[in-house]
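Regression test case RT-17, inverse folding.

Input:
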């Protein structure tokens, strides 16, 4: 599979792959994930028999550059613009593409639909809807200060603890994500900007998927997201913390996006 690139409006180079055949389905990664090593890659393989599946590195990750980086100057509009150019490049004709976003990537997908991108349906895995009060203002400034001090692994740990990642996961993986730590400030901005008013502008069918094993604030966030979306619906799948088996998720997404 050949890596392709598209230039965003601000000159950021976005790396992406496409596989399969059929209607276009773009997968939008959550915090810290990359298209080659993150959870979207195996999911894409399960979806490829029924869709042209597009996976990409969000700005500041993997093989994509970061025209706004390392922190200052970022707006939600930058990443919505990245997605707009990607959809133009992959050619989603007629009624547009389908989007599937995971966690904070789900919030980016909602921002994109609300901004009028050509999207016909959107699915969301455990969006941290309503978490802006915890991740905005002083919290984002704390992350920025840690970045300026070069404490990138600490940025990752601080963010993960704030969103309820189990401590064993935090301890095991923070250093491996340090290279893209600045993108967590971007995820904070996405989260703070995703208000009920934004969700109300998402007029396409919207499916919220959650893992029945994820506790804490996440189940209520999923319910709140469904309540805020004009055409929202919810499904819970038996699985593990903040994850479900790829085959099970692909089956649900295929049925929803091919209606």
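Golden output:
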């Amino acid at each position: 599979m050949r890596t392709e690139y598209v230039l965003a409006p601000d000159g950021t180079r976005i790396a992406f792959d496409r596989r399969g055949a059929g209607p276009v389905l773009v997968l939008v990664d959550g915090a810290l994930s990359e298209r080659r090593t993150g959870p979207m890659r195996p999911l894409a393989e399960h979806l490829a028999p029924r869709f042209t599946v597009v996976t990409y590195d969000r700005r500041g990750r993997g093989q994509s550059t970061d025209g706004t980086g390392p922190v200052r100057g970022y707006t939600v509009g930058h990443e919505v613009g990245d997605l707009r150019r990607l959809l133009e490049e992959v050619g989603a004709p007629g009624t547009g593409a389908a989007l599937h976003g995971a966690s904070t990537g789900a919030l980016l997908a909602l921002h994109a639909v609300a901004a009028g991108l050509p999207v016909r349906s959107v699915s969301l895995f455990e969006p941290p809807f309503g978490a802006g009060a915890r991740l905005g203002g002083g919290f984002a400034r704390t992350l920025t200060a840690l970045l300026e001090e070069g404490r990138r692994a600490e940025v990752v740990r601080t963010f993960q603890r704030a969103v309820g990642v189990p401590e064993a996961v935090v301890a095991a993986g923070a250093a491996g994500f340090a290279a893209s730590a600045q993108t967590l400030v971007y995820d904070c901005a996405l989260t703070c900007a995703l208000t009920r008013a934004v969700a109300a502008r998402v007029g396409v069918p919207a499916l919220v998927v959650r893992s029945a094993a994820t506790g804490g604030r996440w189940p209520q966030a999923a319910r709140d997201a469904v309540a805020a979306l004009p055409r929202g619906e919810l499904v819970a799948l038996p699985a593990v913390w903040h994850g479900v088996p790829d085959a099970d998720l692909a089956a649900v997404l295929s049925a929803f996006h091919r209606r």
